[in-house]
Design a protein that fits this description.
By secondary structure, the chain is of the alpha/beta class. It has two domains: 64 residues; 204 residues, Vaccinia Virus protein VP39 (Rossmann fold, 3-Layer(aba) Sandwich). Helices cover 38% and strands 19% of the residues. The chain is elongated and about 70 Å long. The model has no long low-confidence stretch (mean pLDDT 95). The protein binds glutamine. The site of glutamine has 13 residues, from helix 7.
């Protein structure tokens, strides 16, 4: 029997886990550990090592505040303000999407296409946290990248992330709407995870997404394809001959995006599935 009235750190995280489970959070145990770790500033092993220590009373209110946000449906990444992507840590703010694991396939494709190119130039349209372009820069030492976003707040975050990852010298964050932020520059690889949800469908999204992700990062216009129309029409003017394009898509958009790219004269168009088996990425090459 536990004699002490002060709960241990282990008891506190398990208590929070049970509260989250009761409201139907599927990742209750993980989320409870992450929130307790962030309040106590502990890493994974630190939490395990201090399971039996008393939970510091001075931190109770902090934890309660974070727990209330999670119980109200806010994603744990947004509460903590960080998300891991491609093995790197990315800071978030209100103007950026939480990086998603399925988006890592765009990085895989870029790495495969760019490894053989000397000093490749990369363009990330709608860069948000910068997670795509910065993961590429982190893995290709000679690469440099431009991240464009309409939101200056998102660009500040992307710049901070570049700095924190030691990539600031090879990354440029530029404000603007799609290609309008560019001169006549050309790139070896253009990548984008654009907003691709049809406006009318946004209501049906998971509450954690609908309520807490920035609308501008989700809404792709009436049919969700507006950004792909702009990209298909203009990307070739900004790719070197034979340059590569990779676009994240919604599960039912592969056919339409394929058509837009083939009408625009792209070659080698391919649709790739994510680990859940959904169409998730369209890739293509500019003519040589
Ligand atoms: N490129 C960022 C990401 O993949 C932002 C995407 C977006 O805001 N639609 O997370």
């Amino acid at each position: 029997m536990m004699g002490s009235s002060v709960p241990s750190i282990g008891q506190v995280w398990r208590g929070l886990r049970d509260q989250l489970t009761a409201v139907g959070v599927p990742t209750a145990a993980l989320d409870a550990r992450l929130l307790v770790r962030s309040v106590l500033d502990l890493d994974t092993t630190g939490l395990v090592a201090s399971e039996m220590d008393p939970f510091p009373g001075s931190k109770t209110r902090d934890l309660q505040a974070l727990a209330a946000r999670r119980l109200a449906g806010e994603p744990v990444a947004r509460i903590r303000g960080v998300q891991e992507f491609y093995g790197l840590e990315f800071g978030l703010n209100a103007a950026t999407l939480i990086p998603r694991p399925e988006t890592e396939m765009l990085v895989d494709f870029g790495l495969a296409r760019l490894r053989a190119r000397p000093a490749p130039a990369i363009l990330d349209l709608g860069t948000g946290t910068g997670c795509i372009v910065l993961s590429l820069l982190a893995n290709i030492a000679s690469a440099r990248g431009v991240g464009i976003d309409i939101s200056t707040e998102a660009l500040e975050q992307a710049r901070d992330n570049a700095g924190a990852l030691g990539l600031g010298a090879r990354f440029e964050a530029r404000q603007g709407s799609w290609f309008s932020a560019l001169g006549d520059e050309r790139f070896d690889f253009i990548v984008s995870n654009p907003p691709y949800i049809a406006s009318a469908t946004i209501e049906t999204l998971d509450p954690g997404v609908k309520t807490f992700d920035p609308m501008a990062a989700l809404d792709g216009g009436a049919d969700g394809l507006d950004p792909y129309r702009i990209i298909a029409a203009q990307a070739r003017d900004h790719l070197v001959p034979g340059g590569a394009l990779a676009l994240e898509i919604g599960f039912d958009q592969g056919h339409m995006v394929n058509e837009l790219l083939s009408s625009a004269g792209f070659c080698d168009i391919a649709i790739a599935r994510d680990l859940a088996g959904h169409d998730r990425m369209v890739t293509a090459s500019a003519p040589k």
